[in-house]
Amino acid sequence: MRIAIDVRPLTSTMTGIGRYTYNILSRLLENSPEHEWFLYAHRPLTVNLPSKPNIHIRTGNIWLNQANAVYAQIVFPIWAYNDKIDVFWSPRHHLPVLLPSKIKKIVTIQDIVWYRYPETMTRLGWLQEYMLMPLSIKISDHVLTISDFTKSELVSALNIAPDKITVTPLAPVDLPKNVMPELPAELVGKKFFLFVGTIEPRKNLGNLLEAYAKFCKNNNDVNLVIAGKDGWGNQSISSIVQTLQIKNRVTILGYVDDCMLHALYQNCLALLMPSLYEGFGLPAVEALNYTKPVMAGLKSGISSTMSSLVVNNTDDSAEAILEGLIKIEEKMNFDFSRPELETWNDVAKVTKRILLSIT
Fold first, then answer.
1. Rounded Cα gap, residues 20 and 9, in angstroms
2. Domain of 210?
């Protein structure tokens, strides 16, 4: 088989979709030497992949983020035609709509934020999703999703046939071998809640900070750590913290690497993830892997049905989040067994089966 993959998520600092793509791709490349793999991107990759005769990397030199979608729509079909591709997989919501009809097409849908919460997206981001996601699903031969929640959303909101969708739940990322994760010096010996994610309106950080400020009035020994790169929306977390007078209780780390993430998960009291909307949420499954309680939003792929460690807020308000913090604090007093989670090998096997079965 000659299989092409859209690897644009691997051209910059990796967030959720990039980590999803890398963890599946690395296993596909390692365990499938019998196939020819063609990796397409608009610019050079920022990750190291195996250098083997059956792995072909095609990249452009487009550095303007706003232009990468146009480049993919125009250039990827040409590459696919010249490379005589049998199957094309996009892990990032959109397929090149001009791909030759004989090529089988698979697309992964993480969520439908553009449909449910368009106000939490940039105008350009929303427009791309609005124009390309429904069309990509329509021309695809099969759809992958990361949770039963997202599958139900696709069925109920976009009228996608259930048998066209396969769920491949996310998995925790393994700690690199021979690595001892260490906390930043300012967190050593401190108790803390943890937030991990891109700083953007959908993450509901404003209400989280307001709830945490109220929580602090009766809890003077639990800090809050925020880890994640800046997104968009001009959300000044520092100014909110200053206004709420909790500056000495909140540590803002910015983007952290995988090793630091493991240290944070290992040492936190709980993960707080009160997003307005989450297709799944990779930080949640990584925290659960360390048997840490997780507070999640109501509209999320992470729910109490997945693990008794999960608390779902009743709504998105600061008041509901405060109630969630109190419930999370109660869970910290009990011993829980580690939930059974998928592995990335499991996810890669299912993905490979779908890639090969639709031909």
1. 9
2. 185-331
